[in-house]
Amino acid sequence: MSAGESSGSVVRRILLGSQLRRLRESRGITREAAGYSIRASESKISRMELGRVSFKARDIEDLLTLYGVADEAERESLLGLAREANVAGWWHSYGDVLPGWFQTYIGLEGAASLIRIYEVQFVHGLLQTEAYAHAVVSRGMRGAPEAEIDRRVALRLERQKVLVSERAPDFHAVLDEAALHRPYGSPEVMRSQLRHLLEMSEHPNISLQVMPFSFGGHAGESGAFTMLRFPESDLSDIIFLEQLTSALYLDKAEDVQQYEKAMVRLRADSPGEGETRDLLHRLLQQA
């Protein structure tokens, strides 16, 4: 199974969930009533419609019957989507070090056609070297066994393959200059990280910009965020906000529009890609 196929299962889960929600709402059926029909709770229906859980064929069949979907072709199409949605992703083998709330993100990241990020604390995970990632993880998990730290670093490096895969997404990154000055690891680790950024910035699908200190206040004042866009036209953009012990996934149009405006402003106010490379070269000389 390829990373693309397993990542796509998360998107299919969300697509199926949204279709089930539309069918339920079009019939005026409450989540409570839908849950009762499949011997489950209202919260289970909510999780299914958000694409947060796997699907049982029997539950899908019962819900489709409740929602009045009698056409065999339509039923089979949705049941097929459920089967594809249940395919386990490659990251499940890292379940021992991967929190459940982040598994959804990795699947979405792998299925996206456009990834846009703003990062302020450190270099974004998809752009980290192995040594830099080890320093970041070690500092964030003080006292953790070395084996666990190594597993988390390995997971991060596995994620990075998406940027150079056959169906690599466009990746637009805006890093706050603070991320490039805050030391993680030794001076040589930081120099290697800067060289890696220069190298990655040359990839045709990667756009890298740095928001300089000299600009002052800017549109990223609320902190780091990620925007994901998918090739499926009926799946809305998703905003990912990582927190200490959980994450927020925003897909309401008004929320997405606000982050869209912030990202457009950040990219417009940051120096272009050529100027960013010049800045990276200067920092490398000073490091």
Characterise the protein shown here.
By secondary structure, the chain is of the alpha/beta class. Helix 1 (3-26) crosses helix 5 (72-85), helix 1 (3-26) packs across helix 6 and helix 2 (31-37) crosses helix 3. Mean pLDDT is 91; it is low at 1-5. It is 53% helix and 11% strand. A hairpin with a 4-residue loop joins strand 5 and strand 6 (247-250). It has a six-stranded mixed β-sheet with strand order 3-2-1-4-5-6, sandwiched between helices. It is elongated. It has two domains: 3-85, Orthogonal Bundle (434 Repressor (Amino-terminal Domain)), CATH 1.10.260.40; 95-286, Endonuclease, Chain A (2-Layer Sandwich), CATH 3.30.870.
Cα end-to-end separation: 42 Å
Q: Could you tell me the mean pLDDT?
A: 91
Give the overall form. Answer: elongated
What is the N-to-C order of secondary-structure elements (H for helix, E for strand)?
Answer: HHHHHHEHHEHHEEEEHH
Query: What about the largest sheet?
Result: 6 strands, mixed
Q: Under CATH, the topology of the largest domain is which?
A: Endonuclease, Chain A
- How large is the radius of gyration? 21 Å
Strand content: 5-15%
Spatial strand arrangement across the major sheet? 3-2-1-4-5-6
Name of the top-level CATH class of the largest domain: Alpha Beta
Class derived from helix and strand content? alpha/beta
Helical content class:
40-55%
Number of DSSP strand runs: 6
| Count of runs of 4 or more consecutive helical residues | 12
CATH architecture of the largest domain: 2-Layer Sandwich
Uncertain runs are 1-5
What is the domain tally?
A: 2
